Amino acid sequence: MAAPDRRAFLRDGALGAAALGLAPSRAPTWRRFQGPKTRRVLVVAFAGGVRTRETLGAAGNVPNLMRIAEQGVVFPRTRATNLGHFGATLSIFTGISEARGIRDNIRGTDPTLFEYLRKDLGWTSSDVWVSTSGGAQEANISHGLHPEYGPKYGANTLDGDGIFNAEFKGILDAYGRPREMGAQELALLEKMRASIGGTAKGALNDVDSVARVERFLLDELRRGTQDLKGLGAADAKAFRVARNLLAVFRPRFLAVVVREADQAHGSFNNYVQIVKRNDEMLGELWAAVQSDPELADSTALFVLPEFGRDADLNSRRGLDHGDGSDDLNYVSLVCWGPDFRRGVNVQEEVRTVDVCPTVCAMLGADARYSRGQRLPRLMA
Ligand SMILES: [Zn+2]
Fold it and tell me: Which of 23, 140, 171, 312 has its CA 20 to 30 A from that of 216?
């Protein structure tokens, strides 16, 4: 019997160490985690505090999410990190439990997924987008203030409700018509330009893409995104903008961040209606991926709330978030991708902070400050 070849021994040893997360170089670990097909990733922060009871526990509310779950991998025991909406949502993108309170309105100090991807992979800002339902907090997700990362690696940010306001509808008449815009129309256009990126300064950090984005926004106005109205309209706009972004810019990483389900504090019924509407919009986004052969073969999707809600109704027949129940602390993470397993439920406990390092590993970047782990039993 021949003694094992020294080179083979070292190689196998290195792989074994990599599997345990002990490899001196992380490159082999990434390669092992990178599927052959995944070239782009969508992360939907189905946020605002959403319990599994109203999603996978009530299939009628979320037929689209159910369909995606049945063809993908579900982690029904995904532990949320803290109980402020902003901090908990930010944690999904930093992979660190962010200790920020509910009213905080500042950027974090930890790098985000967007920054890891752009810095490690040399991607431009038009590769990396975040579409939000509006508000300064959500715009702050696009990048942190870490000295090694920061604004120059941030995501392009579109705040659907801020931009696709009925006020801008007048621009429509001028757009596409071969004539000069009037002073009032020009003023409106200036205002729209100013609202790109919401209130976040420098959110649209690639100056060269501004013209393309502007053209996109004007097209959005023509497509009627501003006409989405009623309960949950701000979230619906964020989904619609994301769907159209996907078609126009074909981003390599796209995040959708919504939050209107938080109306649950005052009304359980409104909350359920918003969950249903967001599922419809998710279905629209999903259909856009599936109907495009290139996207369908190369796009992975992650959907998760930032945390759940209390087990019992409050005195207003609403649902708060603060009782420490499993309904609050655990959410369902649904993953679908061309390199993922199909129709699998993973009962193992994972965490919302695991999404960031998982996505980075899949695309070949290193979420070096993240505290999360790569999701187990995900890859086919
Ligand atoms: Zn709340």
Answer: 140
Measured in degrees and rounded to the nearest 5, phi and psi for residue 355 equal -65, -45
pLDDT tens digits, residue range 293-352?
Answer: 999 999 999 999 999 999 999 999 999 999 999 999 999 999 999 999 999 999 999 999
Domain range annotation of the chain: 33-162+228-363
Nearest to 333 by CA among 300, 302, 358, 360: 302
What is the Å distance from ligand 1's center to 129 Cα? 25
- Collect all residues with Cβ–Cβ distance below 8 Å to 67 and sequence separation of at least 6: 283, 286
Report how far ligand 1's centroid is from the alpha carbon of 185 (Å). Answer: 38
Model pTM?
0.83
Distance between terminal CA atoms of the chain?
Answer: 35
Tokens standing for residue 361: 């590993």
Distance 314 CA to ligand 1 centre (A): 13
Say if residues 241 and 134 touch (Cβ distance below 8 Å): no
User: How many A from CA of 190 to the centre of ligand 1?
Assistant: 34
Distances in Å between the Cα of 52 and the Cα atoms of 58, 77, 248 are 8, 10, 33
Centre of ligand 1 from the C-alpha of residue 49, in Å: 7
Centroid of ligand 1 to alpha carbon of 266 (angstroms): 10
Architecture (CATH level 2) of domain 33-162+228-363:
3-Layer(aba) Sandwich (3.40)
Ion ligand 1, residues whose Cβ is below 5 A away:
262
Enumerate the β-bridge partners of residue 75.
Answer: 333
